[in-house]
Design brief:
Length: about 475
């Protein structure tokens, strides 16, 4: 080795040492931010533990203590339907009908201004992290800054989701959904929890029955027959908030989503072939391969005098290529089916979801105020009592009436409805600028659960329910 070559190698080694020192120094400088970035990921370890528990169960059909984990709070009427029912049943006289319609118009005016303010604040918070922003680009945010902004957005969404009567899906429910696959779901997916920083679901409108068909293209076929739709548990609306390590906050809402199909809504997923389909495909390959070998291989052995080892090698290569092609085609069909399903079930995304949530919260606010006013008018005169007794009486009466009318067991938040009614009836102004009622933001009222919901970007998140 010449002196010149030795000096060149030494210079290259020193350069690499400087690069290594620079990388290590930048890593050490970023070390204080690591707990903030990795904290939510550690929280998902409890989800992984619950998933392991469900894998050890034999054929679970629903999450543990499902009746206690999920309480339906969605009023399954539109505002117009509810107004017609209340007029028909409680306000049949012309004077009462006019009074209720005027009250409904007053509620619309007050809540419109109130939720417009809430939506404006949410949009201002969300704008720096909006992936679909059409305005000029702002200075890029660091990952800790982006996570902090996402935390603020999710915290601000909590009372809006609660007022929209979405119920949070607990960590135990999510573990069940990620592990259990319904036999009717031809498309099955798998996820890697290590890719996610946080994920949270909210839902409303629980139903048990045959799911609505999307289109004829979405019907399930199993080789020679069509599957018969089975009754299963699903939700009319589901809201998802998730964040991957290499992505951004994803806000989406979906309709008619089965409980066992929640994982199909997540980003960063992979299509997997079910065990039944793998067995059928392998059986078909073996039968066709044996038939080809008997009919063609024997002729090759006798006529062309080819060695047995070489023939088996060619046959194994042929079957390997054929199996790869068949499984690839099956994956492509399933990926297309998944894209088709998500196309028809998706209702709103990201910034548009904030507007949809504000409209739904306003609608639920109005329905609660109408129910409170109509039922309090029916209360016997002289039946006083404390506010707690009034709230309990109102809750019982409304829940029984909704069960009679719809057949759905709905948990009615009477205390919140009375608060809405008091704020509205105390206001006399009709225009927002002067004397407009200041409605207090609704408090988050999550139903009691047996465990802690999946953690979002903040350890004290208390999520509520979805679109």
């Amino acid at each position: 080795m010449t002196v010149e070559r030795w000096l060149r190698l030494r210079a290259q080694g020193l350069a690499m040492l400087h690069v290594t020192r620079g990388v290590w120094a930048s890593w050490v400088r970023r070390w204080p931010a690591l707990p903030e970035l990795l904290g939510p990921t550690r929280a998902l370890s409890s989800l992984a533990a619950k998933m392991g528990e469900y894998r050890r169960m034999w054929n679970p059909t629903e999450p543990r203590d499902w009746a206690q984990q999920y309480q339906e709070r969605f009023i399954p009427f539109s505002k117009e339907q509810l107004l017609r029912l209340l007029i028909q049943e409680f306000h049949s006289s012309p004077a009462e009908k006019v009074a209720l319609e005027e009250f409904s118009a007053h509620v619309d005016l007050c809540t419109l201004y109130h939720y417009h303010q809430i939506l404006s604040r949410l949009q201002a918070l969300y704008d720096p992290i909006n992936p679909d922003r059409e305005t000029l680009d702002q200075p890029s945010l660091t990952d800790p800054q982006r996570l902090s902004n996402e935390q603020e957005v999710l915290l601000a969404l909590e009372p809006l989701l609660a007022q929209a009567n979405f119920s949070p899906l607990s960590e135990d429910t999510l573990a069940y959904a990620l592990v259990v696959h319904h036999p009717q779901d031809e498309v099955q997916v798998t996820i890697n929890l290590d890719q996610y920083i946080y994920m949270q679901f909210w839902a409303l409108g629980q139903r048990v029955g045959k799911m609505p068909r999307l289109t004829s293209a979405g019907s399930k076929r199993f080789f020679f027959y069509k599957s018969t739709p089975a009754e299963r548990r699903y939700f009319k609306r589901v809201v998802l908030a998730a964040r991957t390590k290499r992505g951004h906050l994803v806000l989406k809402s979906f309709k008619d989503t089965p409980l066992e199909g929640l994982e199909q809504l997540l980003p960063e997923l992979k299509v997997r072939t079910s065990a039944l389909q793998r067995t059928l495909l392998n059986l078909f390959l073996v039968v066709s391969g044996v038939a080809v070998f008997v009919n063609v291989g024997m002729v090759v052995l006798t006529d062309l005098k080819m060695g047995t080892s070489l023939l088996l090698l060619f046959f194994a290569a042929f079957m390997g290529v054929r199996a790869t092609k068949m499984f690839g085609q099956q994956r492509s069909v399933q990926a297309l089916e998944l894209a088709h399903m998500l196309y028809y079930r998706s209702t709103s995304n990201n910034s548009e979801l904030l507007s949809a949530l504000a409209l739904r919260a306003q609608d639920e606010h109005t329905k609660e105020a109408l129910l409170a006013r109509s039922f309090l008018a029916r209360r016997p005169r002289g039946a006083g009592g404390s506010p707690e007794e009034t709230s309990q009486w109102l809750q019982t009466e409304v829940e029984n009436w909704l069960l009679t009318q719809t057949g759905c067991a709905v948990t009615f938040n009477a205390a919140r409805a009375l608060g809405h009614l008091q704020a509205l009836t105390e206001s006399t102004g009709t225009l927002p600028p002067s004397g407009f009622p200041k409605l207090d933001p609704p408090a988050t009222d999550t139903p009691p659960t047996t465990d802690t919901p999946p953690t979002g970007p903040a350890p004290h998140d208390r999520p509520a329910g979805g679109l």
